[in-house]
Every structure is written in C-alpha cells, then in structure tokens.
C-alpha cells in the first residue's frame, strides 16, 4: 500500500480530513466479505464513536474476556490511533475470533457478506445485553444488604407474564427500526397490527428497478384468500384479508440488503441476479407511517459483490468520508468520483461484462425534511 497510500494522500492533498485514517485490510485467503463490511462499519460514524468509547471505558479491565466486541473495538482503536494517515492493517485477532466462534466462517469457502453483517450485529447485541444485565445484577446485589428482599423474585411484579424489560443497546439505537404488519379482515374491517424489529431490510429485486420501487413492493398490499385465509379474532373464523408491511419507526442508520442470490430449484444451486437496481445518493422514505413520511437518508457506504455467480466471488466497498468517495479493495484504498457510484447499480442486460453490483447499502438519516 506504500505507493498507493502516498497516492491517496497526494490525491486528497490539503483536503485530507483532520484526524481521519484510511487503512486497507489484509485478506487472509477468503476474508474480503469481512473486510468490506468492517470498512462500511468503520465509516458509520455513530457506530465507530460508540465502539471507540466502549474501548476507552473497557481497556483497563485486565481480566476482561476476549469476544467479538472487544476484538472489533481493539481493531477500530488501532486504526484511529495510527500515526500514519494511510496504510494497511491486518485484522487478524478479529478474524481469528470470528472463526473460533462460528464454524460457518471457518472454512476457506466464499462467505456471504450479509450473513456476516447480520451475525456480527446480533452477536454485539448479545454481548452488550449480557454486560448490562450483569452490571444490573451487580448493583442489585450491592444495594440490597438483606437477601430476603429478592428471595421471592423481583420486587415489582412484571407485566406481560414476567417478561423482563428489553435492554436497548447502542447497537439497537443506531440500526434498529420497527416494522408494523397490518392485516385487515375484509369481512369486519378490523385491522390487526403486529410490530417487529429489524436491523436491516432485505429487499427482493427486479430488473431495471430502483430502491424506491423495491421498498414500495416490500410494503405493497397482498390479499390473503383461498388456502391463505387469515383467522380473524373478531369473526372467530378464517376470512379473506389484506396484509401489508409498513415502516413504523425508521432507524438512524438504514441498512438495505438486496437479494441478489436466488436459489434455482432446477439447477440445485444459487444464481446471482445481476439486475440493475438504482440506489440514489439521497433517499426519501415514503412507505412509512405518517409521522415519518418526510425522513431523508444519505448514502455513505456500499458493499459490492464482484463476480457473475455467488462463488467464487469477491467483495469490495465504497465509502463516503468527509464528502469524498473512497474505494476499498482489501489492502488497496483509492479515491473515486461520486459519479462512479452509478457503475455499481447492476447490468440492464442478462449477460454483461460488468459484474460489480451493489449488495448492501448503508444510509444515514438526515432527519425530517
């Protein structure tokens, strides 16, 4: 990266952002799926800030057990504290920990970047929840000098059949949104709504479409009839109904996964859909509940899948940092023009020489317009 690094510094010149670091990641045989996602997360500013704060607060805990969170915090801290502005870092400890913990990522097979992102965020949530819980328990132990207080369960009865308060971690605050699944009985018109949380949205894609149309399809109304009838509690019977999914609470960071890999029964394997799906630099969410109708998002990272099929393939990432777009390909980092982002939309023809397609998109909320 020596020459490439100095080339990047030259390209940015005195526009090199104060205190920012642009480091490529070494690839350990097949770890591009991990490198590309970690770059996108490093340039997700609220995530990086929380992780560095976590590192600062926990680095003194000598007997702390190593886990994915401590390894990731350590890696981010290593990058941000480099003396040089550019270079290459080997995320070795993190990758070793990942492989040790999940056999899915242990083989030298091509891995899926979206599966990795999903696993990582859920794992961080679990670790943070356990830490919060044990800190709470520790406080309760010390604050209650008389043990009989807790002998018969918690002091306050808990609603919802003893469900404990869900712990909201900083990962939730950054990535979690809420979907509401509305089902309207066509006989009595009663609407049943069920909420569910998400850390990312997986969207079905069509040829020559856009993120906006994929989101519209995601939220489109579907009629449940014949064998799919809905059991309406009010009618006490199976009825025809209309069902749709809306975004009830949009997340601060909206992660969109495009379903580019489709299982083809006849072939007995996955096929890559190289469809052209336009993803705008600025996105307005329209399929949300009314109060959020004007929320705008700005694109800051794209994990790109390179290759005509799922295996063997390669992952790279595009990242926006301080109004500059950068291209990360394992050890290599270079500047690109904003207009180059469009070359990753996909192919409008079935067979095309362009095999670099946007796969995971990261948008940050700009708040209501």
**How much of the polypeptide forms β-strand, as a percent range?**
25-35%
Alpha-beta content class? alpha+beta
How large is the count of helical segments?
Answer: 9
Distance between the termini: 41 Å
Helix residue percentage: 25-40%
How does the overall form come out from the CA principal axes?
Answer: globular
**Largest sheet: number of strands, sense, barrel closure:** 8 strands, mixed
Q: Which radius of gyration do the C-alpha atoms yield?
A: 23 Å
Order of helices and strands: HEHHHEHHHHEEEEHEEEEEEEEEEEEEE
How many DSSP-defined strands? 20
Catalogue the unreliable spans: 145-162
Compute the average pLDDT: 89
The gist of it:
With 369 residues, the chain is an alpha+beta fold. The protein has nine helices and 20 strands.
Features:
single chain; 369 residues; alpha+beta; 4-stranded antiparallel beta sheet; 9 helices; 29% helix; 30% strand; globular
Topology (SSEs and partners):
Elements: H1 2-12, E1 22-25, H2 32-42, H3 45-58, H4 68-80, E2 86-89, H5 92-101, H6 113-143, H7 159-162, H8 170-175, E3 177-185, E4 191-198, E5 201-203, E6 209-210, H9 211-218, E7 222-224, E8 230-232, E9 237-239, E10 241-249, E11 253-258, E12 261-264, E13 269-272, E14 277-278, E15 282-284, E16 295-306, E17 314-321, E18 324-329, E19 332-336, E20 356-368
Parallel strand pairs: 1-2, 5-11, 6-14
Antiparallel strand pairs: 3-4, 3-10, 7-10, 8-9, 11-20, 12-13, 15-16, 16-17, 16-20, 17-18, 18-19
Helix pairs in contact: 2-6, 3-4, 4-5
